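Let us practice reading a record.
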Amino acid sequence: MKDTSLTPVKLLPHPQTRDHVFQKLRRAIITGELKPGQRLVERTLAEQLGVSRTPVREAIRMLELEGLISHLPKLGAVVARVSDAEVLEIYRIRSVLEGLAAHMAAENITPADADKMMQALERIESAAQQRDLTRLEKEHRQFNDIIYRAAGSPRLYGMITTLVDHIQRHVHVGYNQPKRIEEATREHRRLAEAIKARNGPLAEQIAREHIDNSRKAYFFKSPPTGGTKPTP
């Protein structure tokens, strides 16, 4: 396994050390620091993180349950690859769940959270204007997080964020399509205004359309692979 920038974790009682290792590896996978198909060697990771192999082994098992790590014959644990068919499936599920979250957020959002949402929107628009994709993705995640939390459903929040994490490595693909940044930014504006106006049905409709448009942008030049070709 090639070197990464993983740094040692603070040594704590075993369950906490395991959880710290889990979160660190999870973030490295989601951000792409650990690449799809990259082999994960317990001994090497333990040395990099400054822990024993036990919390690393347990963290890898937890990540395997999430689908972020796979076990392959002769190779052992590797960062899971996400096929286009899986990305398509996740987008379709997200369309439903994020529509529901937007609807619930419109019903439950507080004035303080509505202000935070509009401030996050302004940062998205600034990043989009500058075409700063790194900043845009960061602000986009924060904007979405405000809406997910405003829905007031911890279970729904967990379901959505898990799905988003699985394709976080791929979201920049859609932004490479002509005018998608501008279109997505307008969709964010419409969504925020619907939520602020407490129009649940409209917020749900806009959220679902946004996810569907993001799905179409992802597959614009990347037809799904693996098995029967699904229709975007």
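A brief commentary: The first helix runs from residue 14 to 30.
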